[in-house]
Design goal:
It comes from Brevifollis gellanilyticus. This protein is mainly alpha-helical. Helix content is 80%, strand content 5%. It contains 4 helices and 2 strands; from the N terminus they run H-H-H-E-E-H.
Length: 103
């Protein structure tokens, strides 16, 4: 274990408006994406429970709406993951700029 001090003064950095703005935007995106994911994920069992006849409606041969909705959850998760990776890359650049300006 090292007694070296961090080269970044995190207390001063945390007080900067740019840093707070970055954290706020990250939090908004992550909370919004999580709420959307959970609502979309839980919609399938709710729809199957409340509207079973609708969900049994066959669309392509024996494939019904419930199966299509279930498979769409994979696509939705990949899209959210792709969006997060793109946003996180931009946030990393912004964070580096804020830290660099702090020195």
């Amino acid at each position: 274990m090292s007694d070296q001090k961090s080269p970044v003064n995190w207390d001063a950095l945390e007080a900067k408006p740019e840093f707070r703005s970055l954290v706020s935007r990250k939090t908004r995106f992550i909370v919004s994406a999580t709420i959307f994911f959970m609502a979309y994920y839980l919609a399938l069992p709710v729809l199957v429970g409340w509207f079973p006849e609708l969900m049994k409606t066959q669309v392509l041969g024996k494939v019904n709406i419930a199966y299509i909705f279930a498979l769409s959850q994979f696509l939705m998760a990949w899209i959210i993951a792709f969006m997060y990776v793109r946003k996180a890359s931009a946030w990393d650049k912004e964070a580096a700029a804020v830290i660099k300006d702090h020195h």
